[in-house]
From TrEMBL:
Coiled coil: none annotated. The keyword Zinc does not apply. The lineage of its organism: Bacteria, Bacillati, Bacillota, Bacilli, Bacillales. InterPro entries: CBS_dom (IPR000644), CBS_dom_sf (IPR046342), CBS_domain-containing (IPR051462), HTH_11 (IPR013196), WH-like_DNA-bd_sf (IPR036388), WH_DNA-bd_sf (IPR036390). It holds the Pfam family CBS. It comes from Paenibacillus medicaginis. Keywords: CBS domain, Repeat. This is Helix-turn-helix transcriptional regulator. Residues 74-131, 139-205 form the CBS domain. PANTHER family: CBS DOMAIN-CONTAINING PROTEIN CBSX2, CHLOROPLASTIC, TRANSCRIPTIONAL REPRESSOR CCPN. Transmembrane segments: none annotated.
């Protein structure tokens, strides 16, 4: 598959150039190139070089479709605490669940904010009374929380995670709350781990 990747990136490319990139001799590659042409992963044109074949293009389309999968297909269960949860209980929940942040909701289950390890660490260092403070006092509040919906693509979620330098995103849908204003119902969370696992599964299939 290394040969297919090289052809995809550099086509048209000669057998000699492929051999040079792989640091092997041209005769060593002859058999592999022939097999890939027969299997339709690559295509050869005399005096021009190698191009991606139909199967190679199909594989790239499959990978693109993979990134177009919906967040709702791979998101995990959210780790949630209520606004009035104490810092002490929030820290316990954080470490028991082994996550980087907690999603904070109101009594109706609507998104109120997110509390990260850094948020909790900052308030507890040198503050012996911090344990009794409600988590709502230190969380990042809802208007400033970056979210995704189950219908967003994995690619969109990954871009948000990278752009905002965060580890995970709450997955939300519009809430039917009777409170004034617009509210989000938390239905999951998507993390770097979710996305990496999906990519590793995709590579394993190759």
């Amino acid at each position: 598959m290394e040969i297919v990747k090289i052809v995809q990136k550099h086509a048209p490319i000669t057998g000699e150039q492929i051999a040079e990139m792989l640091k092997v001799s041209r005769p060593t590659l002859r058999s592999d190139l022939s097999k890939l042409v027969i299997l339709n992963y690559i295509d050869a044109k005399p005096k021009v070089g190698y191009f991606l074949g139909q199967k190679g293009n199909t594989r790239q389309e499959e990978k693109f479709k993979m990134l177009q999968k919906k967040v709702g297909e791979i998101h995990s269960v959210p780790v949630i605490v209520r606004e009035m949860t104490t810092i002490q209980d929030a820290v316990v929940s954080l470490f028991l669940a082994n996550v980087g942040n907690l999603i904070v909701t109101d009594e109706e289950g609507n998104l109120a904010g997110v509390a990260s390890r850094k948020d909790l660490l900052k308030v507890t260092l040198g503050n012996p009374t911090a344990g009794s403070i409600p988590v709502s006092m230190v969380m990042t509040r809802q208007p400033n929380v970056v979210t995704v919906s189950p219908e967003d693509t994995i690619l969109e979620a990954a871009r948000k995670i990278i752009a905002h330098q965060i580890d995970s995103l709450p997955v939300v849908i519009p809430s039917d709350s009777e409170k004034p204003g617009f509210h989000w119902k938390v239905v999951g969370r998507i993390t770097k781990t979710n996305i990496i696992k999906m990519l590793l599964d995709m590579v394993a299939e190759d």
